[in-house]
């Protein structure tokens, strides 16, 4: 299926730079990649789009995520300025299934998508996206299946050593004082084959990459909890009054507001070491043994400097409220906090598998595969907070004479709200951050492990049914996480003064938020967090708690048995050749989720607030759930003309909830760091960490595609598709008993259920690719590829606090006060456009990607609605062959510095915006 080299089919094409014999022209560069991709699409039985390259490292991208977003209908969610999770056909990552060399891959995020940043693009040489399903594919892709593949050394068929080094420059990192903004990555790979006599043929491929880069960030962020406040009254002191959905539905005016808002400056260093290896052994002509191993060790350290407006619900006056319910302008009073944090993450991935294929006869092929995939992610943060007070660290009254500072909030002119504070208060005066010192050490570990095995049988037949296939699969997946917090507060002003004076730092960055609209705050007093830990505790790291058990912890076991039968057919309908497959897959899923329950003690923080902590006496609650689903599928291809294909597909598909969404834990939300004023305030915020009884989202699907292949460089295809969903997602409140402060109380705990809603999505995707070989030289090196996806859906996802809520006792639905979102990740419009110039030794490429607004669920679910605004990026790539086997390469990413903007819980209500800046790479590649 995978072509080793795309050979030019038009004799009029200009000569290309390539390793070639005297009687053929071998295409290379971007043109070769597009030719291989077109060939893969044409030969596939299912509706497929692909990106493939003959050589390791020839996929034109710096990351796998960036490469995928050039494929028709695929787009990405950006984190740290790079492509991360993938959405297909405008549908979110949880509706897609990702596999690596045909196997499920574990993830450190708690969802089912592959962490594409974990795998170097230089060591991947094929990416296939199955838009339609067929019975032999691993189940789990309503939107599609993304398959990543590494090469098999004997199939590759030739020896190659490749070395590549890149240096990168990041202008935003260059703004960090004392940092030049430079980074690097180096890759080396080897492919070789050996004839070992009576033992047959043996091949090996191995690749290694080391990366040292940076991902700075400038951001403003609101808290993850937004509340509805009564807009009919003004509150001069204290927080605004919360209003219920019922009150609003009866006519009480409201506005929504976060608990806090933070300006955040981030400096970051990112390190990754990755090794890929494969062994292919053919001891006899009918036996093929493949072993592959992938290892990645990635870590980063973030230095965060935060300025937090911690009491946004306090004494809001002169409000201007948007018709959608969010604040456009307000005046208020708030404490200010300078928070300094060192966040460190390490993520280790180890995966691989052994496949043995035996041609038992000329027609019978037996294949067995076992695989292992394990990801462990550990996050550790040490955070220090210093808050404003009426007195400074020397005991003198501050210029404003109050703990709280007056401010105005103005979001009328752009997505970036502007804060203006009382001019008497100097944000850069360290002595004004003098009170309520708080030190936190947070640690969270996520561990995801998958053991899997499958056995497949294929039997070729003469006649219209050309082959029968059958197989079984078993997977054993575990997902667990724990969250641990060690916290200390103190109010001794003398101790605060000594620590404050000792640990002051210069604001880490020049020109903070210079590119954001409005007159944004550009600096504030900052401190060294490790110095503060040492000053207060006598150590930089007090370590985690002796007991890391907690009611938020997750312990999920998922076991899947699946079996399928499928028939391939090939024949003719009159004079029209036809081919395709028809089959059915049966999937049984068993889930066992363990959660801890504990009584809660009330702890006085010493600053007028309280917090809740577990008593340490735990009991385990186990919730089991199982489902069985039948997934029929049929694919049909009509060869209307030798270069025109008409495809049709009908299939049923499923997408399972993320492992973290199956948690049986309970979460006490502390409103992003603001402790509770009283117990009554605390108990309103207990939520389920997940919903173990969530079932897969099911859909019936139909696709119809028309594809025209004029030549090896050209493609024009149109696909229309329809999906009918059974069930949506709806919050449900279930009463549970808790012991808080020695008293038993009944609390409505909110989680998510599968609703009985029916919904649908229909869409169209179009791809056009060609090389303008008919133009006179040198313009005949120009080429382009453009793809567009349009989707329309009426799916509903309700806000966990302000949306529709189902009452299982009364079987009634309480209407929400904000509109529901659509499918997580759903974008109505997705565009990818490439223009390339590939002739002789020179290759140039410009890549534009656009994705319209979409709803992005938080991993684990049971959270409020979050929307990501329209976003677009433009990247440039170039390579120049200096001599045989040596090329110079340049890349420029996000050259227009497009920010990422998120809204919550309604569109227009800015929760966060990020600026990442551009990135520039220059490198040298040597092939031998």
Short description:
InterPro entries: Beta-barrel_TonB_sf (IPR036942), Plug_dom (IPR012910), Plug_dom_sf (IPR037066), TonB_rcpt_bac (IPR010104). By secondary structure, the protein is mostly beta strands. 6% of the residues lie in helices and 55% in strands.
Commentary on this structure:
It holds the Pfam family Plug. Keywords: Cell outer membrane, Membrane, Receptor. This protein is mainly beta. The chain has a 22-stranded antiparallel barrel. The protein has one domain (29-212, 261-308, 332-379, 440-484, 545-896): TonB-dependent receptor, beta-barrel domain (Maltoporin, Chain A). The model is unreliable at 1-25 and 670-674 (pLDDT under 50). Helix 6 packs antiparallel against helix 7. The chain is built from eight helices and 48 strands.
Beta-strand portion reads over 45%
What is the number of beta strands? 48
What is the CATH topology descriptor? Answer: Maltoporin, Chain A
Largest sheet, strands/sense/barrel: 22 strands, antiparallel, barrel
The number of helical segments is 8
Q: Mind telling me the C-alpha Rg? A: 29 Å
State the helicity in percent bands: under 10%
Structural class: mainly beta
Shape: globular
Q: How many domain units?
A: 1
Q: Please name the fourth-level CATH homologous superfamily.
A: TonB-dependent receptor, beta-barrel domain
Biased composition (Low complexity): 11-20
Region (Disordered): 1-21
Domain TonB-dependent receptor plug: 41-144
Organism: Tsuneonella flava
